[in-house]
Amino acid sequence: MANMFQIAPGAPQARENLDGNGLVELSDLKEILLHRRRLVVGTAAVLTLLALIYSLLTAPLYSATAEILIDPRDLQVVTNDLYPNSVAADGGITQVESQVSVVQSTGVLTRAVQATDLTKDPEFNRQGLLSRLLGGGSASSEETALVRTIDAVRKRLSVKRADKVLVISVTMTSTSPTKAARLANAVAQAYLDDQAMARSQTAENTSGALTARLEELRGQVQSAANAVEEYRRQNNLTMASGRLVSEQEMTDLNNQLTTARGRTAALKSQVDQIRAQRLTGLQSGATSEAIQSAVITQLRNQEAVLEERATSLRAQLGPSHPQMITIQSQLANIQQLITRELDRIAASVNTEYQRALANEQDLATKVASLEGELNSKSQASVRLSELQRDLDSVRTVYEAFLTRAQETREQVTINNANARIITEALTPQKKSWPPVPMLLAGAVFGGLGLGAGLALIAELLAPTLLSPSQAQSALKAPVVGVIPGDRAKKSWLDRLPFARRAKVAEDDEDEPMISPRLDGAIGLALRRILEAGHSTAGKASAASLIVTSCEKDTSERLRIVSLLGVHATSRGERVLVIDANMDQKAGGDRGLLDVLAGECSFTDAMHFQFGQNIAYMRRGRSRKVLREAQGREHAVAMLAQAHRMFDLVVIDGGILSENLRTAPLVASVDHVILVAEKNQTSLRDVADIRQAAELMGQRLSGILLVDRSMRA
After folding, report:
1. CA 170 – CA 105 distance, rounded (Å)
2. Around 417, how many Cα atoms within 13 Å sit in the side-chain half-sphere?
3. Which of 452, 684, 428 is nearest to 552 (CA)?
4. How many CB atoms lie within 10 A of CB 143?
5. What residues contact residue 256 under an 8 Å CB cut-off, 6+ apart?
């Protein structure tokens, strides 16, 4: 029967609420986690336990770090170094980043492994049983062991460059703290040695290449020099101080000819001047030669003295005096001497002019002769110049290669590495793995996250009622109240007969089930149900309601039925409680089934065992199969009579989707109330209850939500 009211795909009333508004909303996340807190906490506990076991069983590891400073400018040992001294635009960061890969290279690690004899260490050279059985010869085994050790070292090695610095950190991890420090220092030193050897090898290779080139260049220089000398000998081109002798002679003769022409011109000017003075009747004593002559100067002085005496005597003695005559004779003699001296000077100048003119003509003849000889050798000189330039260029290249070869040969033995160890690895005092606090914290938070995820998945696979808003949205019915739940898995009242439950609750005022808070919640819920009925009917009258639930909420449903009866009677109302859970075995007394079958009157089926304000009607004993129309007719008549006798009729409808024989009652009562437990009742089950009620002719009037987290 339970499957009778399951909703088939494509049915008119599909479960749109379960796929839409009935699904989990963000506001319900807290309710999901609280409801499935055992799963969340259990997952976190399991992961924490696994992390703790791993921390206890895992062998501890220790990490040691050595730091290497790399200067991108390079160390300049000689003037013309092999490596440039310029720094890249990024400050050398790219160069240092490339050195991180060099530190982890196979060459550096091989050097470090060989330096520490690490191939004999079982921690880094652990060989499996199969590998030992299938091992080859000794050479192959040694090579395999080296490769295996390098791979193990690379897994334990961490090389990083800190941000904005040129320092490389070399971190090595091992089970022994001393070994970790030793290996970190070994790798750092192996890197420095590798860099020094690489630079030395580069210098050696460069020097070898230059030296090999020198022999060829030396031969080229020798060939060029021989070609120059042979050509010079064949063409009789004598060289002196890098120039042809004939060219030097030509230059000297040209210089002499220029000087001779200048002197000839000067002497000719003097001769022309002297001749001009004589033609005009002027004395030639005005020439520069006469003025510079010492003889002329002395004679001029004597002449001046005599003229002074003559002037004095002429005034004293007169012109006819004998002394005057003597002085006049002396003056005439001196003038003759001056004239003869001037003539001699003029003749000397003319002679010197003639001699200079002859010298000039001789030099001009020699220059003309030498020019003809040079013209005949001009083509040979051009070719000789070309050969000489070739010789000079080859000699320059040879000298440059010879100098560079000597410099690079010296750099082979010089260590110009630009890196150094600034911090040597020290023996670590604390283990780096496993980090127990971090693992435990990660396990706790990871477990909580995983548990939360599993809780959400579980809720998605089996959705439950999480909140009043979700219940109201999913079932399209109002939540008339939230009732504190029974914290026990099964109430002790469930073990009593139905008729005894309300009696115990009525007599025992100290029972937590009917505490003031619980009684207030039941009263508020009942008032909402009845007020909804009054607003619908338009006037106050007796009300009948049927209480249903899912199978998991049976105990809570029975408790709610009892609480509704107890609360109504406490207000002085007359209450009828009917047990309509007909899928259970019929009792021995007459009851509901007998009334619906027409085999018993309404008053005969009631029992007033505990007072006049509350009456009970059991399920009954009739096994007669009733037609639905007949059952509804008797149900309507029974409820009409019950409304005249009682203020409230509370019917325990059981599970409507399984209790099909209650259909006449469901169609006839005023209200259908669903009892569901928060975070426990499945949305799929309540959907079946809702559809069952609708198929029986009645919609859900309200929901009583039970919350076990609330204190009664």
Report:
1. 13
2. 21
3. 684
4. 12
5. 363
CA atoms within 13 A on the CB side of 371: 8
CATH number for the region 464-707 comes to 3.40.50.300
3-state helix, strand, coil in the chain (%, to 5): 60, 10, 25
Q: Which residues contact 142 (CB under 8 A, 6 or more apart)?
A: 119
- Separation of alpha carbons 381 and 385, rounded Å: 6
- Name residue 431's amino acid: K
3-state SS, one letter per residue, for 524-583: HHHHHHHHHHHHHHCCCCCEEEEEEECHHHHHHHHHHHHHHHHHHHHCCCCEEEEECCCC
CA 361 to chain centre: 95
Cα separation, 624 vs 621, in Å, equals 9
Q: Per-residue b/e over 517-537, b at no fewer than 16 CB within 10 Å?
A: ebbebbbebbebbbebbeeee
Mean pLDDT of successive 10-residue stretches along the chain, which has 712 residues = 34 38 61 84 94 89 92 60 53 81 93 92 74 51 88 93 88 93 94 88 81 84 84 68 64 82 80 68 55 71 77 74 78 78 77 83 78 64 78 86 78 71 91 87 93 88 85 87 71 48 48 70 88 53 88 90 88 89 68 84 78 81 69 87 91 89 88 91 90 90 88 67
Q: What is the pLDDT of residue 366?
A: 77
682: which DSSP letter?
A: B
Terminal-residue alpha carbon distance, the chain: 36
| Cβ neighbours of 209 (radius 10 Å) | 13
Strand blocks (E) in 430-542: 479-484
3-state secondary structure (DSSP) of residue 401: helix
To the nearest 10 degrees (0 to 180), the angle between helices 322-411 and 294-316 is 150
CA neighbor of 665 nearest in space, from 699, 633, 691: 633
pLDDT of residue 138: 45
Model confidence, pTM: 0.53
Q: Which residue has the tokens 């019950």?
A: 642
The strands making up 167-174's β-sheet, listed across from edge to edge, are 157-161, 167-174, 62-70, 419-423
Residues 6+ apart with CB under 8 A from 630: 598
Q: Which two tokens stand for residue 669?
A: 């009562």
Q: Which amino acid is at 252?
A: D
Query: Per the structure block, which two tokens stand in for 657?
Result: 């989707």
451 and 41 in contact (C-beta within 8 Å)? yes
User: Chain centroid to CA 439: how far?
Assistant: 25
DSSP 241-274: TTEEHHHHHHHHHHHHHHHHHHHHHHHHHHHHHH
Q: Cis link prior to 434 (omega < 30° from 0)?
A: yes
- Rounded to whole angstroms, the Cα distance separating 194 from 187 reads 10
What one-character-per-residue DSSP string does 623-642 give?
-PPPPHHHHHHHHHHHHHHH
177 prior amide bond cis, ω within 30 = no
Which amino acid is present at 645?
A: M
The H or E element that residue 99 is part of is helix 93-103
> Alpha-carbon distance 638 to 627, whole Å?
16
Three-class SS state of 65: strand
Q: Are 269 and 349 in contact (CB under 8 A)?
A: no
Given strand 606-607, what is the order of strands in its sheet? 479-484, 702-707, 671-677, 543-549, 648-654, 575-579, 614-617, 606-607
- Domains of the chain, by residue range, sit at 24-57+436-460, 62-198+417-423, 243-390, 464-707
CB atoms near residue 422 (< 10 Å): 11
Whether residue 416 contacts residue 81, with contact meaning beta carbons closer than 8 Å, is answered with yes
